[in-house]
Amino acid sequence: MHVLQAQNGFFFHLRSLLFLTVTLTVLFGYSSVTQAEEKPKAKPAPTEPTLLVLGDSLSAAYGMPVEKGWVALLTQDLKNRNIQVVNASISGETTSGGKSRLPALLKQHQPDWVILELGANDALRGQVLQTTERNLQQMVDMSRQAGAEVLLLGIRLPTNYGPAYDALLQKTFQQVAERNQLLFDPFFLETVVMDPDMAQDDGLHPNAQAQPAILQRVQPLIEQLITQKPAKAA
User: SGNH hydrolase-type esterase domain location, by residue (predicted)?
Assistant: First the structure.
C-alpha cells in the first residue's frame, strides 16, 4: 500500500514537472516571437521622385506667405506628377552655409534632382568669390555623388556694387556651369527685376506678384532637368 502511494506521488510530481516544463517552453517561445515581431523596421527609402531646392531668400518666399513663393507654386505643379519638392532654402543663406547643410539633406531626402540657388549673399557681403566658386563646385560634386543631377540658378548684383564685381560674380557662376556641363540660368530674376511693381520695398527682393513670372522663367529648365535624368525611384 505504501509502495503504491509512493508510486502515485512520484507520478504526480513527474506530471507536474512535465506540465511546468511545457508551459515555460510555450511562454518563452511566445515571448521570443513577440520580441521578433516588435523589432523596429528599417525606414523605407522614398518612393516618390524628389527635387531638392537649396537657396536663399529668393527661393524661401522672403517677405510673403510661403505658399506664394515660386517654389511653392512649383510644388503644386509637380505634385500632379507625383514628384515631391523639398524646399531647404533659408533667408540669408550663403554658399558656405548651404555646403554645410547639404550632406544631411542628401541623406535624409535622397533627391533625384537638386536646384542650387546660392551666391547672392556671398557677393552682397563682399566675400572672395573664389570661395563661392569652390563651395558651389563642392555642392555639385556632393549632389552627383548622391545620384542627383543639378540645375544652377545665377543672380546679378545691384548696380551700386559696380560692374567689375558683378562681372566677376557672373564669371563665377558661368565657370561652375561650364566645367560641370550643368543646366544653368545666369540671371533667373531677369524677367522681373526691372519692374518696380514686382519688387518689395527694399528694392532687392521680388514680391508675391513676381513669383509666377519667376516660375515661368525657370520651369523650362526644370522640365529639362527632370527629362534629362530619370528619377532613381521611378
Answer: 53-210
- Residue 218 within a domain: yes
Residue type at 46? P
Question: Burial level of 159, CB count in 10 A (0-12/13-18/19+)?
Answer: exposed
* DSSP bridge partners of 232: none
Check whether residue 23 and residue 118 sit in a common domain: no
* Same domain, residue pair 33 and 100: no
Average pLDDT, the chain: 86
Chain segment 31-51, per-residue pLDDT in tens:
333 333 444 444 455 579 999
Mark whether 11 and 61 lie in a shared domain. no
User: Does residue 163 surpass a pLDDT of 80?
Assistant: yes
36: left (phi over 0), alpha (psi -120 to 50) or beta: alpha
Residues 6+ apart with CB under 8 A from 154: 119, 170, 173, 174, 177, 184, 185, 186, 187, 188
pTM: 0.80
